[in-house]
Amino acid sequence: MRFFKIITVIIVLLVGAYAASMYFFVDESKSFKVEKEVEYPLDKVFNQFNNLQNFTRWNNFFTKSKSITIDYYTPYEGQGSAISYNDPKSEDGGEMFIRYENPNKTLRYQLFEDEDENPTLIDVKFTPVSAEKTKITWFVHTPKLSVLTRAQNFWTEDKFTDNIEKSMVNLKNVLGNKVSKDNQMASIKYDTILIEKEEARMLLGINVSTSNKKDALYRNIVMNYNKVYNFVTMDLGKKDDEFGYPVLITDADNFKDNEVSYYFGIPLSKKSGVNDNNFSFRSVSPTQNYVIYYKGTYAGRVKAIQQLMQKAKADEMRYGDIYQTFIEQPLEAQDVNIKLSLSVYK
């Protein structure tokens, strides 16, 4: 009995010492600031923060778990919008609100984690550094904690900062694809040969061999576009602004053959696990291309391809594959809108 009394006294003393140290040396709440810069215009960056459906696509707090479910509440964007979330695997849940918005300048979030009655307050300030660069500043104020739980404040800032680091990588991937698509659409000049340098890309898609008789090739392309698009969006859970335009890669002059082999893929920012053997990744090295934009029947693209080949021959350039980038979704019995890129080299 005496032994248990001694143990009890020791435990009480330890708890008392812990509580005293927390009370005198650790703040009951924590405030800190995090700053980052992204190479994208202010209006495009702000829209990824004030629209919570956009926000949850790239913020690591929500994307790190595959089992999390999120409910969105009107107005979905700006002041008054809100979400609730629940992760049955980790048993985490909570609610998030946008309480204040000054368009393209500031936002204030309230984050209620689990069953906490007091929220974490997060003010975000957006500052244009240049026309193509934006500084984002987070001002974070955590809720007051009891003496016994106050030790959490030792790692709160590091945990938040780590989440921001991972989120910024995701955000840059989302904005990179979105801005690239917008810029490409704005710069289109049809029936004019251009010279472009294409950076390295990673594609996910399928290898195909099919008949080239009449409309058989185009019907096959439409079918395989749907296969790849559905796999990327449904099986991999990617959103449209997380990947680039679909690309068909084939020999430049195989339009004369009775059977055509091609690779049809969608650009992704990085490799990920793929369990379906029908799909494979393909790495495309940087290339110099002769480019022409074409709009019309798919069969009519041949004339545009021949223009590129003739240009290469006239310039005494050798050529390799032709890349057919579908600016608009290919649909059966409809015209196509594509970018034709012929890789050339000395």
Automatic annotation (TrEMBL):
SUPFAM superfamilies from the UniProt entry: Bet v1-like
Domain Activator of Hsp90 ATPase homologue 1/2-like C-terminal: 40-175
Stated family: Belongs to the AHA1 family.
Pfam annotation, one family: AHSA1
InterPro entries linked to this entry: ASHA1/2-like_C (IPR013538), START-like_dom_sf (IPR023393)
Native organism: Chryseobacterium aquaeductus
Designated name of the protein: Activator of Hsp90 ATPase homologue 1/2-like C-terminal domain-containing protein
